[in-house]
Amino acid sequence: MKKILIVEDEPEIRQLLASYLINEGYSVSEAEDGVAAIELFSKEKFDLLILDIMIPKIDGYGVCEFVKKQSNMPVIFLSALGDEKSMVKGYDSLADDYVTKPFSMPVFLRKVKAVLRRDPSATAEEHSKFTYKDIVMIPDMMKVTVSGKDVELTSKEFDILLTLIKNPGRVYTRELLLEMLWDYDSLVDDRIVDSHIKNLRHKIGEGVIETVRGRGYRVAQKDN
Asked: What is the CA radius of gyration of the chain?
């Protein structure tokens, strides 16, 4: 059973989320502020963090950054802050998705399933190993190494890099990456892709992902 930690200071919203998630078969723990969230995270293993931004003591951005330094657990921000600046800051904090309030519960539950969906038996491809220069990716293990060293990526970063590496030389526009890798047509700005690319370059090196001006991103064709 997947374990989810909900961090939300409004009891009604927190309890509503917990009720729906429990009905979906998840195990749920709750926290009402950033300190309590970090304490629970430090004591227990969770599969997903659902995180409000405007919470007491330590805000959601701080909690997300702490969690991502310690683990690769996916994070979904759930916030009333729907402006572009807040959303970009959320993704820069390495969140895997960002949902604005008010929200559709059926859509939100599908987003949860999508983030958690890592079925190692789904296809033969997921058992494959993909290599590009000194990068090795093993999708069913969510494992990435660069020059033999493990690199921690968020699920969105992993999906973007895998998409590019599987098709060297092909240019992917921001819009196409959003359509392929984000699960629903939401208010996500296409510059969110730029934020993930920036984080990827920091983690795997600047020379891997190329910007094709006016078009999008690619990795270069492998040398024959």
From this structure: 18
| Maximal CA-CA distance, the chain | 59
Which residue type is seen at 164? L
pLDDT of residue 121: 37
- The C-alpha torsion from 136 through 140 and 142 to 144, rounded to 10°, is -10
Helical residues (DSSP H) of 122-204, grouped into ranges = 155-166, 174-181, 191-204
Q: What Cα–Cα distance (Å) separates residue 57 from each residue in 10, 32, 130, 209?
A: 14, 10, 43, 38
pTM tops 0.85, yes or no? no
Domains of the chain and any CATH numbers: 1-115 (3.40.50.2300), 128-217 (1.10.10.10)
Integer Cα distance of 147 and 138 in angstroms: 14
- Name which residue leads in pLDDT, 122 or 136: 136
